[in-house]
Design a protein that fits this description.
By secondary structure, the protein is of the alpha+beta class. The protein has eight helices and 20 strands. The chain has helices spanning 10-15, 35-44, 64-71, 119-129, 154-162, 203-216, 224-233, 268-277; strands at residues 5-6, 19-23, 26-31, 47-50, 55-60, 84-90, 96-106, 109-114, 136-139, 144-150, 174-179, 182-187, 196-202, 220-222, 281-288, 299-301, 307-316, 323-330, 339-344, 347-354. The chain is globular, with a radius of gyration of 21 Å.
Length: 365
């Protein structure tokens, strides 16, 4: 059995007593003091996540812009340097190979940030489709570490503790700079619904930054447990739950990140057909009219007992104190306020369809 990988901060997590668990092929911290406490720290102050398990792929060369537009649903053509785009890579049937961020570093130079569990698959897919394009594809995943500094106090903490002034960065922009002789990339992005930043740097620098943040007492170490509760509350998808090889961005309600006016991209015909003709299932929010918690894979039924979908993610909302879920259901039952049921073990609980955003995002525009 292949051993899980470890990030550059693994020893720090173990020393801090974090609960460790496999995730995306890595041994990752799930929680430190507790998911609820860490969740609230990000909502009200500043939390820090080790996200060094994420993958990074650089695409450069004379045809890099054309190639990225060919494999990516969003449109990077003519984008200014320092701009970040969210979108997906699709298969020919419109299913999602991965969702990712694309950073415009310079003319025909892009950094693609992909999900940890998909690194091997994604890199092979990108390289395979680069045939015929004058581009260089470089997998940087083993060279870079990454921190996510998140929460309403994150800008202040970045400045005071790390010496990184970031008030000039707006949401989904980044810059590259030298810090103590080391090249780093700082972006105003995150996966929590709060203002925040992500820092990419060599492993040694990431460890030093983590130590400084912990010693400052101004930031709380956070695990992947609250990363999931935070993203869920604001309706952000997780690959493997709300997106997958057989789930398209149209079904997931993410068509805004699919630019159909581009001349072509892989999967365009399939998702355009879905957009114009409609889809058979849709991702919706559910509010359970009980304190029971729906988990991934639980069946969603009509009041008459017909199975019409399944839960993709479910929690008792920490910020909103309601039992909530996202679910992929038959499109006939996707209208707001539709009454449904969720099968939880041997009992069925009433639920109603709601918007997928259960908590208001707090990004800096």
């Amino acid at each position: 059995m292949e051993q899980n990988k470890r990030t550059c901060l693994y020893d720090r997590h173990v020393e801090a007593g974090a609960l460790m668990s496999p995730f995306g092929g890595f041994d990752m911290p799930i929680q430190y003091s507790g998911i609820t406490e860490e969740h609230q720290a990000v909502r009200t102050g500043c939390g820090v996540f080790d996200v060094s398990h994420m993958g990074e792929v650089n695409v450069s060369g004379p045809q890099a812009e054309a190639f990225v537009n060919h494999i990516f649903t969003n449109d990077v053509a003519g984008a200014p340097d320092g701009k970040i785009f969210y979108g997906m890579m699709l298969n020919e049937s419109g299913g999602t190979v991965d969702d990712l961020l694309v950073y415009k570093r310079g003319e025909n130079n892009f950094l693609l940030v992909i999900n940890a569990s998909n690194i091997g698959k994604d890199v092979a897919w990108i390289e395979r489709h680069s045939a015929g394009y004058d581009v260089e594809v470089v997998n940087l995943s083993d060279e870079l570490g990454e921190l996510a500094v998140q929460g309403p106090r994150s800008e202040e903490v970045m400045r005071q503790v790390l010496g990184i002034s970031s008030d000039d960065l707006t949401f989904y922009t980044f810059r590259e700079e030298w810090l103590d002789g080391v090249h780093i990339l700082v972006s105003r992005t995150g996966y929590t619904g709060e203002d925040g930043f992500e820092i990419y740097a060599p492993a040694g620098t990431i460890v030093k930054m983590w130590d400084a943040l912990m010693e400052s007492g101004l930031a709380v170490p956070c695990g992947l447990g609250c990363r999931d509760t935070l993203r869920f509350e604001v309706g952000l998808p997780l690959y493997g739950d709300e997106l997958a090889d057989d789930i398209s961005p149209v079904e997931a309600g993410l068509s805004v990140f699919v630019k159909f006016d581009k001349p072509e991209f892989i999967g365009r015909d399939a998702v355009l057909r879905q957009k114009t003709e409609g889809v058979g299932r849709k991702l919706v929010g559910l509010e359970l009219l009980d304190r029971a918690i729906a988990r991934h894979g639980y069946e969603v039924l009509t009041p008459d007992g017909e199975v019409v979908g399944h839960v993709t993610t479910g929690y008792r909302g920490i910020s909103v104190d309601k039992s909530l879920a996202m679910a992929l259901v038959d499109a006939r039952y996707a209208a707001k306020d539709t009454e449904l049921m969720v099968q939880i073990r041997r009992k069925r609980f009433p639920a109603r369809v709601t918007a997928k955003k259960f908590y208001k995002k707090s990004y800096k525009k």
